[in-house]
Amino acid sequence: MTKQKLLNGVILAFSVIFVRFIDVRIYNMHVVLVILLIVALIAGLSKLAARLPSLEEPVDRRKAIVINFAVLLALVLSFFALEL
Q1: Between 3-21 and 61-81, two packed helices, what is the crossing angle to 10 degrees?
Q2: Residue 15 burial (CB < 10 Å; 0-12/13-18/19+)?
Q3: Which residue, 68, 76, 54, is CA-closest to 8?
């Protein structure tokens, strides 16, 4: 697994949390707009991340599992802590 794939997971989680936080706490948006914002944010950040050549390095399996678990835990905890 490469660092790029791990970063894509982090980008996905960040985008969902960020847009959902805006939707719940700041401005109540329509569902279609929320989905479009999430897709646009993921696509934009992924294109920016794809330009970084250092992300093509491999990551060992244990680090990948730990990072994926941390991202999943952050996603679940943020939804409970922020009541999203």
Answers
A1: 0
A2: buried
A3: 68
Token match 């401005």: residue?
A: 27
Tens place of pLDDT for every residue, the chain, 84 residues?
Answer: 788 888 998 999 999 999 988 988 888 889 999 999 999 999 999 999 989 888 888 889 999 999 999 999 988 998 888 776
Distance CA 23, CA 84 (A): 9
Which residue reads 């985008």 in tokens?
15
Amino acid at 13: A
**pTM for the full predicted model:** 0.82
